């Protein structure tokens, strides 16, 4: 695969936003507002502000649920 160079922000249809310095900004949701994980590719990342007992976490889609990366469990607000 050939290397591709970008100048300026990089934005994907799935919500990932990055810049040329390598920083990424993930979409942010609370548990109630998180989209259906089944609508996103496995491995899609989001930030959940109030998941798993109120702590913020990065979560990924397993194709069915958003899984909190810290706990390995589906996100919840309890």
What about the largest sheet? Answer: 4 strands, mixed
Number of strands: 7
Could you tell me the radius of gyration in angstroms?
Answer: 14 Å
C-alpha geometry: elongated
Secondary-structure-based class equals: mainly beta
Helix content: under 10%
Beta strand %:
25-35%
Instruction: Report the uncertain regions.
Output: none
Describe, in plain words, how this protein is organized in 3D.
The protein is mostly beta strands and 78 residues long. Helix content is 5%, strand content 26%. The protein contains one helix and seven strands; from the N terminus they run βββββαββ. A four-stranded mixed beta sheet has the order 4-5-6-7, with no helix packed on it. The model has no long low-confidence stretch (mean pLDDT 81).
Write the layout of secondary structure elements.
Elements lengths: L9 E2 L5 E2 L5 E2 L2 E2 L15 E4 L2 H4 L2 E5 L4 E3 L10
Parallel strand pairs: 4-5
Antiparallel strand pairs: 1-2, 2-3, 5-6, 6-7
């Amino acid at each position: 695969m050939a290397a591709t160079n970008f100048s300026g922000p990089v934005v994907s249809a799935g919500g990932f936003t990055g810049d040329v310095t390598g920083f990424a900004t993930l979409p942010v949701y609370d548990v109630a507002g998180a989209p259906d994980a089944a609508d996103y590719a496995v491995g899609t990342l989001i930030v959940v502000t109030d998941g798993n007992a109120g702590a913020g976490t990065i979560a990924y889609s397993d194709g069915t649920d958003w899984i909190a990366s810290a706990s390995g469990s589906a996100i919840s607000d309890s």
